[in-house]
Amino acid sequence: MSFDASAHSEAERLFTFALACAEEADNWPLRALILGNMAQQSVWLGDPQTGLTHTDLALVRADRLPATHLARLHTMRARVFAAMHRMEETRTAVGTADEHLDNSRPDDDPIYLAHDDPAEHNAVAGEALASLAAPTGHGTAEATRRLTDSIHGYGPAYTRFKPSPKSASPPTPSPPATPAKPPTSPQAPSTTPTHCVPSAP
């Protein structure tokens, strides 16, 4: 939540604490999940080098991670490589992620991976490819296909806003406000700060 609210310093502190807890509990999937989120934050903050370090650490003991989780981490690596303008590594990471997703068994995944379905997979991979295609146009078709598949793959649960006929209509202009009349007699300002006054019992 701190990350989504752009409270990045707080998010970094919480991620670091959560990572320490996951490592103390010897929970490798949760550790990898946290490091993947830290890599995502690094990309948002314009620090893909640190993001690459996080994804490398997340993939330590990859044999302990389900295929869906490996697909998630490799799409994040693709985002990191794209931010570094490393085209071949980006495409390789996307291909590796596709292979892991093909081998995934969602029914066996932990609950926190439920969001990482094919639609989310194509969204992240498509964003990575689109960021590479922007300056040169190379790979535009694949990026467009993945993002389009992602849009159609998200179900109704992911709909954030659906315009209604009322919301689609232009707003009715408000009449001009009538200027407030000045008080007939000036009042002396209160010397008691209102935010410190206790409420009445």
| First and last CA, distance | 37 Å
CATH architectural designation: Alpha Horseshoe
Element order: H for helix, E for strand? HHHHHHHH
Which fold name corresponds to the CATH topology? Serine Threonine Protein Phosphatase 5, Tetratricopeptide repeat
Strand content: under 5%
- The helix count comes to 8
Largest sheet: none
Q: What is the percent of helical residues?
A: 55-70%
Helix/strand structural class:
mainly alpha
Task: Quickly count the domains.
Answer: 1
Mean pLDDT: 79
Total number of beta strands: 0
Net shape: globular
User: Spans of 5+ residues with little confidence (pLDDT < 50)?
Assistant: 160-174, 185-201
CATH class: Mainly Alpha
Q: What integer value in Å does the Rg equal?
A: 25 Å
Describe this structure in words.
By secondary structure, the protein is an all-alpha fold. It has a single domain, classed as Serine Threonine Protein Phosphatase 5, Tetratricopeptide repeat. The chain has eight helices and no strands. α1 (8-24) runs antiparallel to α2 and α2 runs parallel beside α4 (67-83).
